[in-house]
Every structure is written in C-alpha cells, then in structure tokens.
Design goal:
Helix content: 55-70%
Oligomer: single chain
Order of helices and strands: HHH
Strand content: under 5%
Largest sheet: none
Number of domains: 1
Radius of gyration: 12 Å
Distance between the termini: 29 Å
Shape: globular
C-alpha cells in the first residue's frame, strides 16, 4: 500500500479528473465520465494495490492503471 500526502493525492485526483471525469478528455469514451467519488475509489484501490517502488508520483502510467480499475469496476460499456 502506498501512502501519499494530501496535496499529492489531491493533485492526482485533479489530474485523473482532467482525463476521466465528467468533463474530462476521455469522458465520451467512458460513459460520459466518472464522478469524483468513483475517481477517488479507483485511486484508493490503485494505491492499495501497489508498493512505494511502483508509484510513479502520479504520472501517466499511474493514471492509466487507475483507468483500468475504473473501466473494470465502474464502466457499463
């Protein structure tokens, strides 16, 4: 499990939201986007599934791993 600071967590949620949230870049491809609650749940699941050495600091690889979780757990497509 990876623990990150509140600022880093909030920045990562905002970053994820830009891509997968309701007004995100990929919202049309993702059921119109995901809610903040869904994004936070996906991020929490991701952080709980990795070690500190796997955390990229909220980079694009981290973002894509969260997208996989969101697609599997919250997408109806």
């Amino acid at each position: 499990m990876v623990r990150i600071g509140n600022n880093e967590y909030n920045d990562f949620i905002e970053y994820i939201d830009e891509f997968y949230g309701y007004d995100g870049i990929y919202a049309d491809q993702l059921n119109g986007g995901f809610s903040i609650d869904e994004l936070e749940a996906g991020v929490e699941e991701y952080l709980n599934s990795i070690t500190a050495s796997q955390w990229g600091g909220g980079d694009s690889i981290d973002r894509e791993k969260v997208r996989e979780i969101l697609d599997d757990g919250y997408s109806w497509l």
